[in-house]
Structure formats: structure tokens, C-alpha cells
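Thread: Modeling a multi-component assembly for a lab meeting

Hi all, long-time lurker, first post. My supervisor asked me to bring a structural picture of a complex we are working on to next week's group meeting, and I have zero experience with this. I have the sequence lines for every component (684 residues in total). Could someone generate the structure of the whole assembly? Inputs are pasted exactly as I received them:
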Amino acid sequence: MRSSGQIEHGAALDDPFAGEAAAEVISDRHEAEFQALIDSDQRIEPRDWMPDGYRKSLIRQIAQHAHSEIIGMQPEGNWITRAPSLRRKAILMAKVQDEAGHGLYLYCAAETLGVDRAELIDLLHQGRQKYSSIFNYPTLTWADVGAIGWLVDGAAITNQIPLCRCSFGPYARAMVRVCKEESFHQRQGFESLYALSHGTPEQHEMAQDAVNRWWWPSVEMLGPPDAESTHSAQSTAWGIKRYSNDELRQRFVDMVAPQAVVLGLTPPDPELRWNEDRGHYDFGEPDFEELRRVVSGDGPCNRQRAAHHLAAHEEGAWVRAAAAAYAAKHPATSAAA
Amino acid sequence: MSEETPAPLWEVFIRSKRGLSHNHVGSLHAPDAEMALRNARDVYTRRMEGVSIWVVPSAVITASSPDEKDSFFDPAADKPYRHPTFYSIPKEVQQL
Amino acid sequence: MVAGAAAVYALRLADDCLVLSHRLAQWSSRAPTLEDDVALTNIALDLLGQARGLYARTAELDGTGRSEDDYAFMRGEREFINCLLVEQENGDFAATIVRQLLCSTFQLAQWQALTTSTDGPVSAVAAKAAKETSYHRDHATDWTLRLGDGTDESHRRMESALAAMWPFTAELFESDAVAREAGALGVGPDPATLRPEWEGYIRRVLGDATLVMPESTWTPSGGREGLHTECFGYMLAEMQHLHRSFPGVTW
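Re: Modeling a multi-component assembly
Sure thing. I ran the full set together rather than chain by chain. Output:
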């Protein structure tokens, strides 16, 4: 049973994955109005009529985004108990906590399309919905925390800022909130990495090693090249996606390449150099075969990440059941009262 | 896989400072009202965003239907005389 | 007179906060719901902030000028003087909630008494901490009610958790020369004086949660003298290894 109400949550379609029947009764008027809203850069809201494909596409993308935030807690959370100073410990805790919050905002945005968070989490556990490939790499040293903040959050922000203008209102609003809160994430990563790269030779080496390992996965996480990107064209027409994967990748490299110089660290790409004519950095070809391998489940940590999430979810079942039982016994504090 | 009934969904409204009305900021799941309020505090006010929180079960909100948009909202569109700019006033009257 | 009683007193408070914060932080990405994950980290962050404020004050009082990181990362097991309750392992969610209920109720009473401390900086930390801890106690109380009066399984788990944590509460209220001196100087309450208020609250909440206040003849103690339970050494080893591996560097 779905608890969602008549407002933004649900109602429009009972089962977002079975919209074919509805498609037959779509009036041209609906279709035209929908496209007119998109074309005039207005937002689509949950109770508006929308093509079934638009709904499915959004559910897939928002859920994947939410899963990424949640699974993304693990690699960095891995260092909370070992953070080398109390200041860094507080920052890291706050950052990983933000990721939980962001996952939550995003699950809520997906729920406005008529799915439950619980369903989405089941799909994650069944491997039927993905999360960002990047979180399937291990955090082996403390410097990885800085490298993730600088590179992974940098790539994520590059991807997320255009989403603040995405055509679907709840997603766009969630992204505004996420981007606002994440503004400190990349800075703290850079600062942490800077302290290492300007510290002792051992610290510098640790930072360089982390950048060597995180550089290419970060360049790859912006998605397959445009020529192979399956969802891009339709997503662009629907105003869900504003820039192509390759455009975002260029933007990301242009942002971090000069920052690497300030850090005094060398990205592991011999082809990385400024191209005066293009006004952009040139860079080498990412290993998209590796990206495919990691996305399809064979990255270093896919199984570990999934197992960790599933274990926590299953271990929490008795707690959630107890809270529900208590609410049923004490209706005064519960929703129905 | 999951046999659980998900905890109900709540809409969260926050007054960001005194003198302003509560604004919708998002939603969350909680088994009951107290927990919803507590969760809202933890999730939506980590950066001093509020001085007061309302939580409302999503299920009890009645919303206007997008299909009624025309009948609901268009009638207001042809009544410019409700707005001060509709009226022309001699220049010498400076404030009115 | 106990030399440096005020410093030792402040350090005890700080260690309690740091160790409990560390334990709660271990829940990150493991809580029953996302909302709880966020809530537990909020509490852990409050406690970490309290610890940092108190380490700064301790450094002034003991005259060593040590940094907060010196206290956190460069002392061994025998030098930490937190109570045993805060270092107990998280166990299941019930154990964590019971530990939270028992600790936060104690800490709240303590902070409230400390707001009138003759030690200005300590009373400033206490004033802020009292507000934070009042929330921690509410959080623990809400969950105690739900788990105690939830399902048979949650009730049973709460009983086990209470049985496991309860013996460590006796130490919270132990009076010793440092505590008596601090009390006499008006630095802070002798913990023994906080017991009636603590017991009254705990009894009421457990009763509402359909749980019974345990009794225990075993009352382990020693934390205030640096005699800890075995699990604590592992916690410190994990917490300190990176900091100690690179002596004297900046992070």
C-alpha cells in the first residue's frame, strides 16, 4: 500500500512501470500542453500530465542519483573512525551525513512520481537500479577522502548544477538544495588534499597516489561518450538533461586541471594540456571499457557496497517494525489521529 | 523482497525566521507525528534553516487538480481592475 | 586539596563526550533508516563539539598547552578517563539507544548543574551542551518508548540491552577526591548528587516503555582511573593509528 497522498505524491499513476494502458487515452491536448511547458522553460509538477516515458526516465535517473548518495556514504565513511584530527573528523562526519540527507531529498523527489522509497531500495538490492560507478572503488588511504572531495564531488557538482534547471520541479528543487549544501564538500576536499600535498614528502606521496587512482574514474563517472549514450537525446528534448556527457566532462577537466597545478599534484594523463585554439584543455581518452565493467557489476567494490547496504537495511527491519507497531498502538501520536 | 509497509510520508514546512510564514521544504518518512517532527529537525534544519517546523501527513492534503486549472485560475486573469496599476492618477498626486 | 582537580574534572567530561561521539559515528551508513542515520550523526557531532571545547579548557587548566588532537590521539588507554558506559560497543540499535538514554540523561543533569560552574569557559560549554543534550535525551526517550512498547522482538532486545548496559551506570555517580574537590570549589557537581534526578527520569521512561528497571550486583568501575574494558583498546587503536603514524604533521 502506498501512503502517498493527493498532493505531489503519487495519485497520478498507481504503477509507474505499467503506463502503457494510459498511453492510449493521452489526448493530443495533454501532449501539446506538456511540450509547451517544457519549451517555454517552465517546470513540470508531479500532478501534471506527463508522457509515461518521461516519468519512467525521471524515476530511473532520480533513483540512481539517490542511490549514489547513499552508497557514496560508504567509501568516505570508511575513514570516519580513523580521521587524523578532530577537525577533520567533524568535517567528514558532517559531509557523510549530508550525503544521507541528499539521498533522502532525492528519494522524496522520486516519490512525487508515485513510487515508494522502499520499492526503489528493493530495486537497488536486486541490482535492477544502478548507482554511480565511482563508489565501487576502495578508499585505501586518508588522502582518498581529499581526492574524493576534490575530484568526485567536483565531477558531481559539474553534473548537478545544470540539474537545478531540470524540467521536473521536485527534482530541480532537490538539486538546488543539494548544490547549496555541497558547496563545502569540494572545498573541504581540496583543502585536505592541499594540506597533504604541501606537507611532508610522505603526505605528498599519499596525495599523489590518491589522485593517480581517482583521476580516471572521476573523468569516467560523467558517463559514456555521447556517441554511445543511450538516454541522452530524449532526456535533452524533455529538459531533463541540459548538457551532453562529453560537454560536462570537458567542463570538469577545465575546472580541475588548473587546480591540480595549485595543489602541486600531477594528474595521470600525459595528454592533459591547455589548447589555446579550443579554449579548453585537451585530455586523453578515458577507459570506457573499464566504466562499462564497473557499471555492470565488476568493479573492485560492487559486491561489498551492495552487501553493506543490504545488511544494514535488513538489520534495521526489526526497528522499523517496532516503530510501526508503536504507532499503531498509540494513535495519538500517529498520522491518522 | 520487502514485506514491509513503508512508514507514512510527511510534508515538512519550515518558518525560516520570525515574521515569515512556513514554507514547504520537502518531505520525509516517519512512523508517527513525533518522529516526523524530530526527523524534520534533523534532516531539514542542519544549517540553522528554521525557527519553527510543521509536519503534515501527505495523505491528508487535498490539492487542486491540474485538470481544473483553467476553471480555477483563469477567471482571475481578466480582472485587471483588482490591481492598482489599472488606475490612472493625475501626476500631481504623488502618493495614493 | 587535590592538585589540578579542575583540569581532571574537565578532562573526564571531555573524554566522555569524545568516546561516545566516536561510538555513535560508527553507525554512519548503518542505521535502520536514512532519517536515523542523519539523527545519530547530529548527536555525534554535538558530542564532538563539546569534547573539543573541553579539551581546549583542559589545556589551559593543566598548563600543558596541549592541543585537542594531543588529548585525542596521543594518550594511551590508561590515560583516558572516560566512564566505562560510553565506551561500550554499539551492539544492535537497542543497545545504542539504551546507552544513549542512560548517558544523555546523566549528561543533561550534569550540564545543567555545570551552567553555574565557577569556571567560566566550562559553564559556557555547559550552557550550549545542555540545549544539545536535552535533544539527545528526547531522541533516546522517543526510541526507548517505541522499542520497549513496539514488537515482542524489540521489547526483548531492549531487555537484553538494559541488562548489558545497566551495570555500567553505577560508575557514573561515583564520588572520589577529584569530584568532591570540584564540588567544593563550585567547578561542577559531585556526580553522586545527580543520581536522584537521573533515577527518577529513567524509571519513568522505562515504565512508560513497559520495561523494568534492572538491578545489578555487579558494578564495574575504573574508567576515571584509566582502567577500561577490553573493547576500548581496539577503539583507540583504530582512532589513533593514522595520527600516530605521521608524528607532528599537519592535516
